[in-house]
Amino acid sequence: MTQTGSAADGQTPANPTNTANAAPAPLTRRAARETTAPVRKVTPVRDAPLPGGRRAAQAARAAETAKASASARKRRFLAPVVLTVAAGMFGTVAVAPAFASTQQTGTDAATAQRQVRTVDAQQFSVSDAVALAGTDRDGYGATAQSTLDQQAAQKAAAEAAQQAAATQAARAATQKQYQSYSGPSASEIAKTASAANTPFSLPAVVATAKQYIGTPYVFGGADPSGFDCSGYVMYVYAQYGIKLAHSVPLQDAAGTTIPESQAQPGDVVVFNDGSHDGFYMGNGMIMDAPKPGGSVSIRPIWSNSYHIVRFGI
């Protein structure tokens, strides 16, 4: 006998001859769960449409993505900057106390060394007499400056005295050579003229001085037998009662220095170095006893280093 039916009636038994008497086969756990559990129908959920349509949604998502990327880049950039600033601040705070400590230590050490040198220094004083005293050692000598100055002054005085003695000796020798003049000396003439109150004037002095033009130059000469420069001036002025020394510097000191603009013939030209003098004749001219081999004459003044002295004021 053959059975017919639909697929919904179940599967055909493996053994159709024992269909009625066959016991059902046991189910596995998975099969049991699938048979027991109710079947749920899954309905796919779709995203709700966003305002503005699909393009607006994509633009919004792109903006959010770009914002998130920028924020991430900013965090990556700021992280090392923050670490660097923090490290610098820490280094500044830590180094300043260390440097101050080192500086203080160096200052304290220098101060301590100065104190040690001050305490250990020898204290001594030197008398003023030691600085003035001369010293000798191993054949070498040291002389105080005051002693050297005194020795120099003594030497200069000795040389001046020697020069004065030589001058007097030369004048004495010259006078012996010229015995033709037998009249009074300049000092005697000055004494007589002063007693007679001989009138004095510069033109009179010039007239008297011109009387001796041609007189030979004689070193140490002070009379008409022979003149040197100061002997000539001395002898002429003696005739008007004015007594002068036989010396250029002393004649300069005995007179009164006047400006050259006020000078008149008969005044005396004195060279600034004290080496020569003579009668001023105006217009840059001088009348003098010049030098050995020469004679009294009028000639131009050859130097600008001179001044004018007036006597009888």
How would you explain this protein's 3D organization?
The protein has 313 residues and is an alpha+beta fold. The protein has a domain at 163-175 and 184-310: endopeptidase domain like (from Nostoc punctiforme) (endopeptidase fold (from Nostoc punctiforme)), CATH 3.90.1720.10. Helices cover 48% and strands 12% of the residues. The chain has 8 helices and 10 strands. The protein has a 6-stranded antiparallel beta sheet. A two-stranded antiparallel sheet has the order 1-2. It has a two-stranded antiparallel sheet with strand order 3-4. Mean pLDDT is 76; it is low at 1-22.
Output the keywords.
313 residues; alpha+beta; endopeptidase fold (from Nostoc punctiforme); six-stranded antiparallel sheet; two-stranded antiparallel sheet; rod-shaped; disordered N terminus
What's the SSE blueprint?
Blueprint: H1 29-36, H2 53-120, H3 128-132, E1 135-137, E2 140-142, H4 145-177, H5 186-196, H6 202-210, E3 222-223, E4 226-227, H7 229-238, H8 248-254, E5 256-258, E6 268-271, E7 277-282, E8 285-288, E9 297-300, E10 306-310
Antiparallel strand pairs: 1-2, 3-4, 5-10, 6-7, 6-10, 7-8, 8-9
Helix pairs in contact: 5-7
Summary, kept brief:
With 313 residues, the chain is an alpha+beta fold. The chain has helices at residues 29-36, 53-120, 128-132, 145-177, 186-196, 202-210, 229-238, 248-254, and strands at residues 135-137, 140-142, 222-223, 226-227, 256-258, 268-271, 277-282, 285-288, 297-300, 306-310. It has a domain at 163-175 and 184-310: endopeptidase domain like (from Nostoc punctiforme) (endopeptidase fold (from Nostoc punctiforme)).
